[in-house]
Amino acid sequence: MLADKNKIAEINQSLLTEHRRRFEYAASEVKNVEAIIQKLIDFNIAIPSWALGTGGTRFGRFSGAGEPRSLEEKMEDIGLLHAINQSSGAISLHIPWDIPKDYKAIKFLATQLGLKFDAVNSNTFQDQQDQELSYKFGSLQHVDKAVRKQAIEHNIEVIKHGVELGSEALTVWLSDGSCFPGQLNFRKAFQNTLESLQEIYAALPDDWKLFVEYKAFEPNFYSMTVGDWGQSLLYANKLGPKAYTLVDLGHHLPNANIEQIVALLLMEGKLAGFHFNDSKYGDDDLTAGSIKPYQLFLIFNELVEGMDARGMNHATDLGWMIDASHNVKDPLEDLLQSVEAIMLAYAHALIVDRKKLNAAQEKNDVVAAQEILQNTFRTDVRVIVAEARLRSGGALNPLQFFREQKIREQLIKERGTKTVATGL
Ligand SMILES: [Mn+2]
After folding, report:
1. Ligand 1 centre from 394 Cα, in Å?
2. CATH number of the domain that 22 lies in?
3. How far is the CA of 275 from the centre of ligand 1 (A)?
4. Is the per-residue pLDDT at 42 higher than 90?
């Protein structure tokens, strides 16, 4: 189904008087509000093709109803999101869960829906039905050269799909590692992985990037061969200028200072971008900003500061993607909430008074520095984000629109109640 633009405009009209009143106040409180609105309009967050269905855990999966049954329907769902919030204009494909069968038709559909193809993602953390060799003991790190070769070829295949669709990056997340002491020679595992990545890197088109994603633990629980940003950066540095470190917020040990990691990766010109989600304990895949919105703001604060220091374009110079899917929410409502939380964190970061913050830092005025950040975080920027959406043709209140227009009910009518989207 497609979103009804006239309906969006009609509902917006009914909310406009109240919105205008709130916006006038916010605009008087925030400096350079027009420049901020433009940046918010330009900013888009890619939606992964695996987030449109209800996620599962290893204990079970409670599928929702009206889930997309094909890549085309997943794209339609993202098209719906984008029509409603005007900030989700890209899809990140996972291969082999979502192999495009007809590139031309898929590209045409993407254009119709206003979507671009973001990074493509390979999968060597599962065995596929028709697969010859198993990844049980790793893929790019495997002691058997034949397994490594199979995994390398898969990644090159993923690049080929991406080239056809107009993607410009490959994200490699490896579950490689070990579960028990002694299982693995760390140095050999690293070398094997590096050599495999080098072969994949050599197959990248000139204008492509390779994103090396790290994760602290799970599914391996003793060691991960790309376990933290240090290891990822080692690979990225050894591979060359097209390789970068990708930060997934849920892939750290508890209490890691992610904002500091981001600042240093940016300083080194090696930050690829983000997988947004939130967590209480580990890789919980919860809605972005649902548990630690202040941390999300602090991360964006470093992003804006670090990108501006390097003269980077916020909207295009890093990869921005949500990587979450959980058991209990409607996936589309969850994504609307995630995008909203990310836009709010970005808006907050844009209004930090950097001159004052810098002055406080230079004087070791710890109290003033904290006040600047916390006052910013406590400023209500929801109406500014809504104004950016309004100007782009999106809904003033996305979640309210989704519910009042009974979009899920319509999707269930179209697709049925017993649909299961491919993915985790
Ligand atoms: Mn991720």
Report:
1. 27
2. 3.20.20.150
3. 5
4. yes
Q: Which residue has the tokens 């690293």?
A: 190
In a domain, 420, yes or no: no
Ligand 1 (ion): residues with CB under 5 Å are 248, 275, 323
Residue closest to 174 by CA, chosen among 137, 133, 225, 128: 225
Report CA(137)–ligand 1 centroid distance (Å): 21
Beta carbons within 10 angstroms of residue 149's beta carbon: 14
In a domain, residue 293? The reply is yes
- Is omega for the bond preceding 398 within 30 degrees of 0, making it cis? no
CA of 5 to the centre of ligand 1 (A): 32
pLDDT of res. 385: 98
Residue 391 maps to a domain:
yes
Count the domains in the chain: 1
- Domain hosting 114: range is 5-415
Going from the Cα of 318 to the center of ligand 1, the distance in angstroms, rounded, reads: 15
Residue-wise pLDDT for 118-145, tens only, equals 999 999 999 999 999 999 999 999 999 9
Distance 285 CA to ligand 1 centre (A): 9
Cα dihedral sign, 273-279-285-287:
negative
